[in-house]
Records
---
Amino acid sequence: MSVISYILAAITVGGGLAAVLLKNMVHCALAVSLAFAGLALLFLDLDAQFAGFVQILVYVGAVAILVVFAILLTRSSETPKDGGVFSPTWLAGLVVAAAVFAVIGWAVLNSVGGLSYETAVPAVTVQQIGQELMGRYVLPLEIVALLLTVATIGAVIVAMHEKEDAK
Amino acid sequence: MTPLAGYLLVAALLFSIGLAGALTRRNAILVLIGIELMLNAANLNLIAFWRYGPHPEALTGMMFAIFSIAVAAAEAAVGLGLVISIHRHAQTADLDEMNRMKG
Amino acid sequence: MLIQEVGSFHPQYVDGPFVTVANFLWLIPALPIVASGMIALLKQPRRRAAATLSIGSLACSLLLALVAFAHVLGGWAHGQAVRETANFTWLRAGAAQVDLGWVLDPLSAVMLVMVTFVGLLIFIYSLGYMEHDENFTRFFCFLSLFAGAMLGVVISNSLLLLFMCWELVGLTSYLLIGFWYQRPSAAAAAKKAFLTTRVGDIFFLLGMVWLFSQTGTLLFYDGGAGSMESEALTGLLAAHAGLGLTAAGAIGLLIFAGAAGKSGQLPLHVWLPDAMEGPTPVSALIHAATMVAAGVYLIARVYPLMQAGSLAGGTTTALTVVTWVGAATALFAALIAVAQNDIKRILAYSTVSQLGYMMAGLGMGGVAVGMFHLITHAFFKALLFMGAGSVIHGCHEEQDVRRMGGLKSNMPSTFVPYAIGMLALSGFPLLFSGFWSKDGILEAAQHWSMAKGPFYMLVCGALLTAFYMTRQVSYVFFGKWRGDGHAHESPKVMTIPLAILAFFAITLGAVGTPAWPWFRAFLDDRAAEFSFGGFHEPGLLALMATSSLAVFLGLGLGWWVYGNKSPQAEEPDALERAAPPVWVVLHNKFYIDELYGATVIAFYAWWAKAADWLDRRVWGGAVALAALLFRGGAHLSRLCDTYWVNGGFDKGCEELANGGGLLARVQSGRVQSYLRLLALAVVVLAAILIWSSRG
Amino acid sequence: MVERLDQLFVLLSHWLVSFLPAGLQQAGGILIGVVVIVCLYPALFAIAVLMERKGLGRMQNRYGPNRVGPYGILQPVADGIKSLTKEDIVPLSADSAVHFLAPLVVVVTSFMGFAVMPMGRNMVLVDLDAGLLFYFAMGASTELAVFMAGWSSRNKYSLLGAMRAVAQMISYEVPLLLSSLAVVMITGSLSLTKIVAAQNSYTGIFPHWYIFTPWGFAGFLMYAISTTAETNRSPFDLPEGESEIVAGYHTEYSGFKFALFFLGEYVAMFSISGLGTTLFLGGWSAPFSFLTWIPSWIWFFSKLMLSICVFIWLRGTLPRLRQDQLMNFAWKFVLPLSLLNLLVAAMWRFLGDGWERWVFCSAVLLVAYVVVGLQEMRSDHFGPRSYRYVE
């Protein structure tokens, strides 16, 4: 874990925490996009170049915008929060999250500790990815393509402004 | 502590932060953001295992991450679409008030 | 009714050229029964229709009977005795089947003619007698029914069919005796008659069932398989029935008990005198000619059974019993008749005594002797009863002989036939039929191998018969009129039948004289030739002399004691003055009724009380107990239902429901709580996995 | 000589780098490249602004700015100084943090594009294998910045402008990607240097630029339309529609932040047209075989300035599109045709050499353009405007 990775990890976790803790919704959205960008950089740090750029393109480019649009459409940013930003049973949630982190952390430390491979940096070219996509992963690719179209149409229909509502 | 364990820990931390966000925040969109975070933590795990795994040239980890990103995007779109339609219907994005599915 | 086969004949019998008679034999009883049915549907005032229907049907039956008789006579004349049967299966239950049928043979032919002829005369007589009675139609309906039933008894070839008609006859006698049911004495007499004959019928039933179980069939003649035929009889003889009796003997005795009940023999004779409560034609028809004769006819019909096992000339225990009972009844009834004052009651006891004669004749002399006396007795006893009827009618319903007298002059057309009848009954020698038939019995009694007792009893009986008949005639017809008002002669419709019967009372004797024993031959299927040699039987003339002596002695004694004296109604009877204690005993009929009252009836009363007690206390108690138990059980179940079921079970269900409510609260609808549970589950699962893998 | 001239800057940087210790050399080289880009493109920005204002003026039959310096040459300097000295007013209710960040993000993401741009032979800062993907990734994040700007200034007009801008950029990003994909499919690589290398050959005197292929020309057309929309320029400059929503998302910006927005906009224009030239106009390759002696970077920058002139020319002539017309045009005309173009490029590649593929591809594309175009014309979108009033 080089210095850079530590920094990037810190940025990502900071973004995540900010996204969760901030009061203003838009700030949360921006914080989360920062986290996404940080994560993309982590990917680059892990020499997964293609994944990193895709992460930026998809998450920072599209999902963040989507979240922001959602926030604006549902006017979440303006409505004054009477009961506070957190739900009444926030403590229970926190405890559970902490428990989950403890368990996973403990599992990670106990299991993967032994797997220290100092492997060479895998030189991954887009060519190879293309071959893989069209080779072994052609079926998942088709399915994801279908899924994306269905999701888009679905989302549009769900969120569409019915005519009768307008009247 | 090996680099892999480091990344896994970061991913676990990010995952639990996402979970905490999902569990504690009142607003539906924040819950979705929490879920996105958890998904990304999972991707980080994948890439870390791919990078420090035995056969990085097999590209499985990375491919898996890429597909996961694609699917997550679709999921985010549908999720937000739902939230928007709920808001239009129930005039609120507050999760506690959306309990019409009560038993 | 499925007519199974036309008729099974003995191979040696060959029937006549035309259709067998047996086929239409059933018409004879059917006609009167159908007539009675139709009369029953008529309205009360339809008197003319009822009379024509019943008399017409009986006339047709008479014609048919004559045809049948001619057929049998023709057969007998050709030397082939005729016995035609027509049997059919009435009931089939699994393997066993019950057959019915009818038979035409000399015995039944004779009876058919007698019953229909006498019946017809009595029907015509009762037209006049019952003229003023408003239940005219009902009377004729019962009469036709009775005639049909009696004819049924005569023609039946099966003991079961005979028994059925036997019961029907009993029923109609009850109905006719109790015809004037307004009078309590008539109702009581009817009931008494019915019950005492029932006692006899029960033994008859037992005998019949036993016969059926032994031989498997109740038919008399069934082409060799009938119960009266040799094959069945040998079977019966083989079976022993205890008390030294063979099955045949025992069954015979049981059937004789039935006959005794119906024919009023000694133990069961009490109902016959009381039956005089019924109208006189009823008494004439039923209690003189036909019904009482049914018992004798029954014994004649089952004679092969009774006689089975007797060696040549010998006799069986059954027949000896019949004889002794007959002789005893004859003497006993004759004694009582002497001390009676009611005109019909005297005749009733005379009938009982004559039936005793017939039974004794059957027992000692065989079927022909008994039957001949039955036929002759039917005619002159019917004559006497109808005569008495016209006397009562004439004296305005007066029945006590002591209030009559001197009717000789103002009721001549009644007096003459009555006198003929009286002479025939008492057996005036040579001229009258009574003498020949009684003589046959006395001859048989004389030759009886067992004992001389019955012979002497019968002779005394004959003497007494002559005595009480002269007493009656002198009281009624001689002396002065002691009644109130004046007696008037009965109309022609009543006196003509008397004349006809009187004619027969005289001529009928010719058929049975020793010189030309046609009747015996006819019945025993032997050729009858006319020869005076018959009289040369050893001791026959001596017998005739003694019997005539007895008759003359009786007549003379009677005229001497009573003659033309016509004592006042209140004066004690001449005999009473002579021997008061004897008179009292005889007048009260040997106190038999009182005896029965004290023994049998008392026993029944006690037994009824005991049964009632048993029923009320024991069974009633048990039922009450059961009821109590049930109520207790119901109470118990209510208790457990309220406390245990409602308390426990329902409450348990309630708890469950609440638990369900609790569980439902988890479905709070809040997404985050679900997510929390999910995460918690993951944590727990992971912990378990790690813990288990570490271990 | 020609070679040296061509590689002038490359040699220059090598020479500078040689002064650095070995460890840092590689980093130093990249640093020099960055510095060059950061200085060069603002200079070009100044020239472009001047050109635009002078060009527009001339088009509108008037002189452009000619007061400052001879023939108005120094106008950009004047503007720069003005923007630096103007007071930077931040609205009270504005979300100061986001408000401050917005212009920065815009400018940074715009400049990021040049990292992978081959401006001359061997003159590319970072030769990424997935160069084009990197470029589009950076391009995608500008929308977020625009939104931040619009939202943070808490102004109805700015928010409305931001929403319009974001919607427009998203709509046209998809056809942009698809049309460039055609080029990637033919060359077989995402790396821009390989794309230029593939075009850098000549048959006779004519270069193998992709624009001279049927699918290339159609692709370039779609690309050009998308770029103008992507940079909110000319017919698609609704976000700053002065007449309706004042200055769009940068209404509340003044002073240097406004200048930054302006700079960001122009740098985005430069980078996207630079990408266009590398993809379709052969990047730094000479137009004719006999002109190869002229240094490669001159060709690159001349094509670049030519594109800018076209932008200015478009701005001067075409009227502004309405929002719904704009959106429908994107989703119903540009997107389907770029998809079709992708198919045609695939057919082009597998039909093999020979005249059949020329005829076939061009025929298909021609028919498609005519049909879809007419269909679009007839639909009411371009007819008289229909008003929907708020009930």
Note: Chain C touches chain A at residues 670, 672-673, 676, 679-680, 682-683, 686-687, 690 (CB under 8 Å).
---
Amino acid sequence: MAEKFDVIVVGAGPSGNSAALRLAEAGLSVLQIERGESPGSKNVQGAILYSDALEKLIPDFRDDAPLERHVIEQRMWVLDDDSFVGSHYRSDSFNKPPYNRYTMIRSQFDKWFSERVQKAGALLICETTVTNLLLDGERVIGVMTDRQGGEIYADAVILADGVNSLLAKKAGFHPELQPKDVALAVKEIHFMPQEVIEQRFNVTGEEGVVIEMVGKITKGMMGTGFLYTNRESITIGVGCMLSDFKKQKITPYQLLEQMKAHPSIQPMLAGGEMKEYTAHLIPEGGFNAVPDLYGDGWMIVGDAGMFVNAVHREGSNLAMTTGMHAADTLIELKSEGKAFTAENLKRYKARLDESFVMKDLKKYKNMPDVFHTNPQFFNDYPDLISQAARTMLTVDGVDKKTKEREIRKSFRHRRSLFGLMGDAFKLWRAFE
Amino acid sequence: MSEAPEAKKPAGKKRIELDDRLKAYKGVWVFIEHERGKIHPVSLELLGEGRKLADSLGVELAGVVMGVPNDTTRSFCFEAFFHGADLCYLMEDPLLTDYRNEPFTKGLTDLVNKYQPEILLLGATTLGRDLAGSVATTLKTGLTADCTELNVDLDARSLLATRPTFGGSLLCTIQTLNYRPQMATVRPRVMPMPERDARRDGRIIEDKLGMVESSIITKVLEFIPDAMQDKPQLPFADIIVSGGRGMKKPENFKLIWDLAQVLGAEVGATRPVVQAGWVDLERQVGQSGKTVRPKLYIAAGISGAIQHRVGMDAADVIIAINNDPNAPIFDFAHYGIVGNAMTILPALTEAFKAHLATARKAG
Amino acid sequence: MHIVVCIKQVPDSAQIRVHPVTNTIMRQGVPAIVNPYDLFALEEALRLKDAYGGRVTVLTMGPPMAETALRKAISYGADDAVLVTDRAFAGSDTLATSCALASAITQIHKDMPVDLVFTGKQTIDGDTAQVGPGIAKRLNMQLLTYVSKVRSVDLEKHEIMVERRSEGGVQLLKTSTPSLITVLEGTNEMRFATMANMFRASRYPVKVWNREQAGIEDIASVGLKGSPTVVSKVFAPTPRAVKAEIIQCESNDPKDLSVTLLAKVFAKNPKLENEIAKRAA
Amino acid sequence: MSVMVKVEEKLFQNRYKVDSGRPHISIIDEDKCRNQCESQACTTCCPAACWTMEGNGQVTVISDGCLECGTCRIICDEHRNVAWEYPRGGYGILFKFG
């Protein structure tokens, strides 16, 4: 006898967990299917947790969630081949509970989150891959798994299956991703004693530092590097648009290795031991790449729906928020005795449009194109900026006014004045 | 032996008080394992190690020989003497033809209860582990498996049995508290083979098993010997050429085979290489593979992780080839070449060839 | 036929690394798994159940989190699962562990007589291969270690025929039940669980027994008190005092390096030179 | 600046449960890779170096070290020549930290 549930959630990442938690709390019968050995074992993130979205779901999450460090300092570095120019923003306001941002280790976090979901009453089945959606005409009526007797039925299926979003693709709900709409990030985790991290990054206790990097480390590709401090480890990685990787024929781990060897970065990793190397795609297509998000008996949440704010490097909070709205939509319809038809599930999209999720994505909707068509942001500028700094900071008997003139000249030399102004304009438009 | 050890004290020996009753237990015993007319080499290796323990404790070293009544069985006592035993306990009975747990457990347990040794050593073979586990439980005493090093704490007359733990990443030393005998099994090829001295002699003490076939439930219906295919005999090879992940591709392993052929050597490998299916499981050297003790061990493209090291660092001469000068293998190899194994190996093969040709002419 | 399979949750020792500099053990991210050797035992038991009918009960002793291992066994097709867990078991060595498990099997036996007990040949964390024999002796069962194949079971005559790996060959043994079998690795491949069993596993209420429920009256027979052995020291192997002599020569040509190496090795180990010459001849 | 990297060293740190005999990624039409694809980007862009170009111009994939990111499938946008499924439940990469 095949099993039947109110809702099946495919995937136990942040979006799937948020949806399942909400649904279970509202008393719906929920089955969550995860292909990993345990929740988190297939999931990769930097990872920064923004507390806002999670707080809405689990107000007391700080009591027992496995968090690493709360971020009190944000550094932005622009790197050329052997130096960097950076800004540090450190504020004591970041250091007052309740904290706003944390570093975390996803395999641990997802497991914790999932335990909360199960406690709320959702049934979790791991080590099971959903291979297809069961369709009755246009309507999704369940899922097919890779196990013998794998048909499972439900009134609605929430697709929280991650960036590759294979299920919606197989069902023809949306086309294959474009290389220009996803970034490929590779990263490593390096373990070292807590004291070393605290000394090296000038933090104490549970304080943490985040470094975002742009410049020559991406070899002219559109992308960024990052370094996050965890309790006893450091996460270091770099991500660039897949279309750029393809065009420039760059090998991702080579890129990461060269970044790690940068004289400004190497000392931060010294003495650590690398314990894991991961790769993951990040959907960065933005507003214009968001696919259809719902239909008869189905909804898409999280990375599968392109919900990442690439500019602000936010993803998991969008995932949680979309999962929550998907669940709330179903709960609302159920309480009204309404079916989970495409017509009724429109409310999900409406909720998202009202929320920061769509508003933010819309705000930056031209951002990807600006960078795609203007490689100088990742190529020439880092060089120029760092040259400028070097020129200014080198004490060599040349007066500052002359130096400024030289800097201006060098900028103009690499990019015409017109180009410079144009770039500023483009950026401003994209942010506006 | 605790299975996931946490040292209860930071380091060192544990103070152990022994009951008077247990103080009567004296002497070091080695169980002499034999199959089809041959002593298992591990038993002789244990006699060498047992000799050292007995000498430091100031007691006698005894061999325990159990088998069918015939000259061969009896001759094992003499082999034991030649390898260091002072005396042998001999139990002959037709029921001891093939190894079966029941009669062997009873026989060995009875001997222990009657003659009361303080230390009982067995080889960590299929037979030795089967028998040791049963005897220890029957006697309700402690047993440490798969030891790589044995010492004694003279104050407490306590056996310090050291074995790899956590998959070979660390070593731990285990002691048996207020129980006797102290039992341990030791892996073959870990201890050196003692010199055979045919002039040595000793006493034989005979005992009866005291069982009848009808009381033994398990029957051996048949013994099917392994097909005599040329399975690699790594543990007994004198020269081994091994490759690791640094060989990059399965095709490159041919370079290892080439050198091995010139040297008349066996080919070994590390765990990742075996897992990747480049070579047979039989050739795996290390914690989860074979322990080897060759006269020469050549390690190419092997970083020297502890899991591998525990299986080979007793080799007389270790030559390491690795392109990473910081690879741990250089910490315990005797000679090292820092460089690409793929170019060094062929050159080394040629050099050996040339050297052997000259030696042959001269000889 | 009722088969009890003893399993253990172990750290995946392949993931344990020692820090190269500090020589300390790095436990971060080392997952807990079902001892791989036990899976061969479980699969063998499930195959017997498929062939002869009956029930399979999985048993483990460990911390509360070991429940995950039991649930996994249920997903493969085991019928029941018992977790024996109690603070009193902390520090148990193999003798104390076999005492606790033997006692629990006796309790299981009261509900439904046990014909066979299966375990893996050893665990990957302890590698002792002692708990199986220990249980057999305590329960006075026939002990069959390193079994590569169960040939047949005669339920009426209470007889079982197995192939047992021994040095240099395979013994074909016949014995009576109840008996304890430790299964050799590589004898079978664990099945891929069915969807129905996955559901069953995720809903199954694992039986959790404390010391009393497991029938252990004498507290001194388990835990530290019931353990004759004690770990007195855990340490990383000491590096050899003298590091390798790195062979160098001006050209750094592989050929020159090789010749230099041989000259050095043979000068110091003339016996080795003879040995190789002898073999090559 | 060129840095020697062995991706094998990196992947060795990872935990996998390999479903031997059931590769989850395969090439649909080998001839396409050899004769129609100019970039063969999969052989440079796969972060686990699962894809290699053989001496005879043929592209091969061995998915044992796969990180399941999806790069090879998406990057093959001109030919759509990659059959890409997730491994069977519980198999494949098992991130310890993620």
Note: The mean pLDDT of chain A is 90.
